[in-house]
Amino acid sequence: MWKIFDLPRLDPASLAGYREDKTAWKRFERRFGTLSVIGVVLVFGGPIAHMMGKISTQLVFVSMILGFLIILLNLFLMFKSAPISSSGHRMKMYWSTSPKPGYNEAVYVCEQSKTYFIRVWAMPSRD
C-alpha cells in the first residue's frame, strides 16, 4: 500500500497494564470536528440551496467539490496528526493486528502515561 499508511503493527491485547484514555480520544475527534462539519455542509448545502432557488447550478458543483476536498483534507490531516494523551504526551499510532473482520483500526499509545485508545478508520458496509 502507500507509504503514508505504512505503520508499525501492535496487538491491543499486549497492552496489559495500560488504561484506555477516553479523554484523549474525545479531544482528538473534537479537534477535527469543525472542519468535517464545514465539508458536510458544503456537500449537502449546495444542492439544498439550489432546490430553494438561492444559488446557480455552477455554484452547486463548486460547493460540492470544495466540500468533498475539505473532507478528504481533514481525513488526511487527522490520520497524520498525533493525538495528545491526558498527561500531555504525544501518542504513537499503530495498526491493530487483531481488528474485527473487515475493520481497519488504529491503536494510539502513550508510553509515558501507559494509556491508549483505539480508533476505527474503516469498517465494512452494512448491506
Question: Could you please describe the fold and organization of this structure?
Answer:
The chain is an alpha/beta fold. It has one domain (9-122). It contains 3 helices and 5 strands, in the order ββαααβββ. It has helices at 22-31, 33-51, 57-80; strands at residues 9-10, 19-20, 92-96, 104-110, 115-122. It has a 5-stranded mixed β-sheet, covered by helices on one side. A hairpin with a 7-residue loop joins β3 (92-96) and β4 (104-110). α2 (33-51) packs antiparallel against α3. It is elongated, with a radius of gyration of 18 Å. The mean pLDDT is 90.
Report the sheet-strand fraction. Answer: 15-25%
Helix content: 40-55%
Shape: elongated
Number of domains as seen in the coordinates: 1
Euclidean distance between termini CA atoms: 26 Å
Mean pLDDT: 90
Give the ordered list of helices and strands.
EEHHHEEE
Number of strands: 5
Number of helices: 3
Largest sheet: 5 strands, mixed
Low-confidence stretches: none
